[in-house]
Amino acid sequence: RAATPALVAAGRRARGRCTTIAPDCSYLHSRLLLMQTGLADRADGMRENLVKLQGTCDSTRMSYETQISNLETRLKDQQVALAEATRLVVETEEQAHLMSEQLEQLQQDAKRMTMQCQNNLDSFQLQIFGAKRLRQELFKVAGTVLLVQDCEVSEWTPEECSKTCDGGVQRMTRSVIVPPRLGAACPPLAMRRRCGVERCPEDCLLGPWGGWSACSAPCGGGGVRERTRPVLAQPQGSGRPCGPTSESAGCGGVPCGAGCELSPWTAWSACSRACGGGFQVRQRHILVAPAQGRGPCPAAQSGVRLRYRRCNAQACPPSHGRALSCRGGHEVVVLLGGGGPDGEESWGAAKRAARALVQAFGRPGSGARVAVLLVGGPRDWRAYRRCTQDAGARPDLARDCGLSWVGHLTTDSAALEGSIRHLRRPRAAPLTSAALAAAATELRTRRAGTSGVVIAVTDGSSLDPHRTSQAARRLRKAARLLWVPVAGAPAEAAARVQGWASRPAADNVLALDSFARLARPDTISRVVARACPAPG
Q1: Whole-prediction pTM value?
Q2: Rounded to an integer, what distance in angstroms lies between the CA atom of residue 349 and that of residue 335?
């Protein structure tokens, strides 16, 4: 510490000369450290907000990327389907063109063969007619009169085809109308010919529907989802044609701003106090998160999701000048601050209050265990960094961080009270976040079936309010956190304490105007009534 000149008057001026003394700069150091840690704490809060904002941005980006990926997949699928359909159209048109040419050629061949057959028939008829006349003329020349009768038959009568398709056999028959006499014999009266040569019809065979695709717009309406099914066999002949191989449906009808869906109210909890007016609580949990994470959702502490009601309003049993004690097995950690700005007088009252709390919770036969942690803080920035920001450091909890265990969880309340009597007042601003973390570590050793309670006796100041909020949030998950801000904490500090305490804050914050008031039996009884479900 640098020495500053000061005029020292000892009765009279000593030879009129100036002398130097070594000043106490601890208060100045404390205020500067408080400013520096305040800036660091605000920076931590801004970094945390930045991380949260980055998380929101990442979530939104992932949502958009998922939608883009789904749309690109749909586009590729549709492009593949379009290419396949185009290929089928081209092949079909080529086949239709070839078949048209073949049909035209077949029609020409059929016409030519029909004309040829007709000419042959006409020629055969003329030959038969000429042969018959020649035969009659020969009989006349020979002078013979004979009645010659050729066999005459009916037209062909077709029977039913053996198969209606894929090639069958049909039997044709005819009968003799006039039997032959010296003329031409009868031709065959039966024959077989092919029939039903067309291909049997086959219906289109479709496979099962596939799953629905992702919705193109999961919220806000206007989204489309699709599903397809394969063609296992094309229709043949006059078979039933294929039905649709794809279908789409609307989706994403939920508004993008739709809020979360909440569960029904839980049952009311047990009362927080056995007397003196406590609270019961019931909650509603989130069943379905907001659409796309952007819809409104009530905060966990809002009245839509959290409700309290008063209970056990009857007065606690009179103490007759003595503080109430706590019955039942509890694990209690008392965090004792530095006694406020009033110096040693307030510190003495703070120690008396701490001893009274130990007596109230650690009374013989109560089954409770009590621990006391003296809460100070680092004296300089280097020590603060070792305690909070240097991951590789191994700080000494007492020397570097200003936190000293007066006694760990114990049933020996008398020894703990004796240790409290000899405590020296911590002068550095409290490192409250580390104190809460130390209390949480201490309560990890609590006995099975017991409840944990942390009572923070402080003036509400803290080197690191942001870190303290985080530590308090973690501690509240494992134990009840009760705050006793003393000596008129500033409005900002009082508001922070309300946020640090367990819920409801009205039942877990007891603000007092002095440590002397805290040491009174009636005030200790109020603390016990708040922290203990069964005071007596």
Answers
A1: 0.61
A2: 15
pLDDT at 12 over 60: no
CATH architecture, domain defined by 261-292+299-315: Single Sheet (2.20)
- Residue 12: phi and psi, rounded to 5, are -110, 165
Tell me the mean pLDDT in the region 1-26.
Answer: 53
Q: Which long-range contacts (CB under 8 A, 24 or more apart) does 393-400 make?
A: 397/434, 397/438
Q: Which two tokens stand for residue 174?
A: 């005819």
pLDDT digits (tens, 9 = 90+) for 330-362: 889 999 987 555 567 788 888 888 888 888 887
Range scoring the smallest mean pLDDT among 13-17, 201-205, 240-244, 527-531: 13-17
Helix, strand, coil % in the chain, rounded to nearest 5: 40, 20, 40
User: Which CATH code is given to the segment(s) 330-531?
Assistant: 3.40.50.410
The pLDDT score that the predictor gives to residue 328 is 67
- The residues, any chain, with a CB within 8 Å of residue 483's CB and separated by 6 or more, are 455, 456, 458, 497, 500, 501, 508, 509, 510
| Residue 55 structure tokens | 């998380």
Neighbours of 288 (CB within 10 A): 13
Give the SS3 label for residue 482: strand
Q: Give the C-alpha distances (Å, rounded to integers) separating 385 from 42, 365, 388, 393, 494.
A: 15, 44, 5, 9, 26
pLDDT in tens, 500-527: 898 888 888 888 888 888 888 888 888 8
Best CA proximity match to 80, nearest among 242, 208, 246: 246
Half-sphere exposure of 90 (CA within 13 A, CB side): 6
| CA dihedral of 87, 88, 90, 91, whole degrees rounded to 10 | 110
Residues in CB range of 112: below 8 A, 6 or more apart: none
The region that residue 338 occupies, defined by phi over 0 for left and psi between -120 and 50 for alpha, beta otherwise, is alpha
Position 176: which residue type? V
Q: Is 329 helix (H, G, I), strand (E, B) or coil?
A: coil
**Cβ contacts of 88 within 8 Å, gap of 6 or more:** none
**Exposure of 519 by Cβ count < 10 A (0-12 exposed, 13-18 middle, 19+ buried)?**
buried
Give the confidence band of 8 by pLDDT, cuts at 50, 70, 90.
very low
* Sequence ranges of the domains in the chain: 261-292+299-315, 330-531
Structure tokens of 85? Answer: 């359909």
- The pLDDT of residue 7 is 39
